[in-house]
Amino acid sequence: QSSSQLTLELQEKINKISESNLTWRDPLASKVISDESDLVQNLSSGAKKSFMRPFNKMQVQTPSIIHDMCVIFVKNFHDDMETIPQHLFHDNTWKESDKTLVNVTENILDFLRDIWKNPAYNVEFVSAQ
């Protein structure tokens, strides 16, 4: 029922939008409905919950083999930097296979081992993650 409620509410709200008021900058003009749009923000709680369901089901977990590789790398790496660069934090969007992740991680860690000094590789930091 909530998906049909979502469909009805979206259709009703979209029909009220004047096409002449849309510009190329409006995501809706490109058939994109963002969860941050007024259209979604003004849905009833049930319809909004239905709209957000696919997003809420997406969860990326690091394969244990990748985690273990990183822990070993950290244990064998010492540095003296004081801050952690923002680009080291993961945004949980990758979808590659474990094999691909292992290959990429090995290449990255091999590269970093020789040149990169960073507190993110400190044993205390990794243990806190």
UniProtKB/TrEMBL annotation:
Domain of life of the organism encoding this protein: Eukaryota
Protein name in the entry: 9220_t:CDS:1
Organism: Diversispora eburnea
